[in-house]
Amino acid sequence: MRSGTCGMLIKQIYDAIGKQANNALRKNDLTLSQVRLLMELGEDGGAAKSLKELERRFQVAQPTISGIVRRSEAKGLVHVFTSSEDNRVKLVKLTPEGEALQQSNMCEIEKMECRLVLRLTEEEQQELLRMLHIVYNNIK
Question: Which fold would CATH assign to domain 31-139?
Answer without folding.
Answer: Arc Repressor Mutant, subunit A (1.10.10)
